[in-house]
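ok so for the tutorial part 2 we go from a plain amino acid sequence to predicted structure tokens. step 1 is just haveing the sequence, like this:
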Amino acid sequence: MGRTIGFFRYVVWVFVIVGTQCAIAQNSATDSPTGFPPLEQWRKAILAGDSATLRGLYSADPVAQVETNGVKNGADADINFWLGLKARDLKLEIVRIREKPGAESVIFKAEVQSGLPNAPTVNVTDAQGWQKQGEQWRIVGAERTDAPHLKQPSDMKKNIYPADADAHAEIKEAEEKAVAQHKRVLLVFGANWCYDCHVLDLAFHRPDFAPVMERYEVVHVDLGDDEKKNADLVKQFDVPLNKGIPALAVADSDGNLLVSQKNGEFEDARSLTPETLLEFLNKWKPAAR
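step 2 — the prediction. this is what the tokens look like for a chain of 289 residues:
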């Protein structure tokens, strides 16, 4: 997601077309296995190889914006990908559905059993923004990650960024611990609604990351629903939020900024490799004494 706004943020911003910030759906369209009937229609069109129906589920006005593994593509590329798998089974695991009258966003993990000879199971993470156009629901934005290298969350219930946390106090405490234990402070700017923030958090808890994560005191800085919370810390640690989140900064034990991301390097965490994350963490960890 290393784009100027963060692509899935665009998908979420679809809700601005029809209203203000959306709420998490509680029991959305329970007559559908996925919880959202148009998504089930989309799934069935792929299984049936029904190109016309599938194409009709992507918006033409506005033109659907689709990105794949960080690369901008049109709806045709997305349609061709799904139909090209010749899927004989397509299982969707819903990570999150958010709704507002006339708009819906859904994040899911897909497991595809291809009908192609000797084809392996295909795993995909997809985020789709849907808009109701007349009587028809259509995809207006999507971000697909094929064969992700990092573990993808099955839900987003973990409270990584508690609303009542005092980030200033946590940073001060982290600095004190960093002095005593010869560590650095890793600041992770994000929010609970951010899918890639959950991907990054899972990566930080990988067993093979433990040796380098032990060299840091980690502080999660909550940006809130509107990304305006803790604005003074965003400014202090020189984090350009227009490049997307999660965003990282590293400070020494005195609170001096050593590095902050400038180009949304980890904003598309779902597409990153473990090696990319480890390279950053190893580069900025404190030197051995």
